[in-house]
Protein: Class I SAM-dependent methyltransferase
Organism: Streptomyces gottesmaniae
Amino acid sequence: MTLLRDEDLSAAFDHASRSYDTLVSANPGYHGQLRRSARRLRLPRRGAGLRVLDLGCGTGASTAALAAVLPEAAITAVDASAGMLERAARKPWREGVSFVHAPAERLAQAGVEGPFDAVFAAYLFRNVTDPDRVLSTVRDVLAPGGRLAVHEYTLSGRAVHRAVWTGVCRGLVLPVATVLGDGGLYRHLWRSVVEFDTADDFAARARSQGFEAVRVLPLPGWQTGITHTIVARRPATAGDGR
């Protein structure tokens, strides 16, 4: 199976948007893990006076995590799937949260402009065609010293963690998704994790795109060794790091 990319992947997410939240709710700790990663941005003052970009917001789970952790920040949430974004925008949000339909690679064309004090990207990078290009875009929209937190299925590299991920997908996720008519998307999501960077490899990728203070932080529960938060910072002096 070839991985889905660009318009094909957006269309698959459009179709799956109607049941996405239901499937997510079956994942123990899903929302709590997102909040943990949002806290790892370590932004001050509950986000007061700060701008945060939620890149790849889906149906808004990552946006909700940011809004809970940073209740006074201005949050711009972006996604390439119109269907997922429509579901997100329908939910009740406080003032200061806005949604924009745009691929991560074309933020400027959609009017999404920095500087942002932080970027949060959940379950995004393994789904883009060119992760380096997106990391470069993220670096450019961050203010000098701005922070990045990537919450992602990035395997540890140990065989046991790869086996657990495959077992969960084949034993639970794929059968349910197939019944719902979204088997193709979730087969892609399984393989996108297996074929993507390990957590350490992604950290190295971030460093190669000019980020500093890059760290890989584990997440607890059944996703230990499967999901990580990778935190990083744009250098405080513009132009440094590359």
Residues 114 and 140 are 8 Å apart (CA to CA). The longest strand covers residues 142-153. The mean pLDDT is 94. Helices lie at 6-25, 30-39, 61-69, 82-90, 131-141, 159-179, 183-195, 199-208.
